[in-house]
């Protein structure tokens, strides 16, 4: 017989893990958005870290240039799954 309290604890821990990863992904996205786009629109800062982020010219081009590579990777993944399915 399944204990109801054990099952609810397992569901709660999975829900917590899901919300944790959603929060972590959202925070990472907002930090990247700030560093790649928004920091360039702000006036120059006296803070060394923010100034280094504002003067960086690498990460603002990194994501747009990885989109074509992502499209090719998704296509090869789809192709390999089709070949595996019909083999």
Automatic annotation (TrEMBL):
Coiled coil start-end: none
Database matches in Pfam families: PIG-Y
Annotated transmembrane regions: 16-38, 58-78
Keywords, comma-separated and alphabetical: Membrane, Transmembrane, Transmembrane helix
Name assigned to this protein: Phosphatidylinositol N-acetylglucosaminyltransferase subunit Y
Organism: Papaver nudicaule
């Amino acid at each position: 017989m399944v204990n109801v309290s054990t099952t609810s604890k397992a569901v709660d821990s999975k829900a917590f893990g899901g919300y944790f990863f959603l929060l972590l992904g959202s925070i990472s996205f907002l930090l990247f958005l700030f560093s790649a786009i928004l920091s360039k629109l702000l006036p120059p800062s006296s803070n060394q870290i923010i100034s280094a982020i504002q003067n960086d010219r690498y990460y603002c081009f990194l994501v747009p240039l990885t989109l074509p590579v992502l499209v090719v990777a998704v296509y090869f993944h789809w192709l390999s799954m089709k070949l595996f399915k019909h083999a």
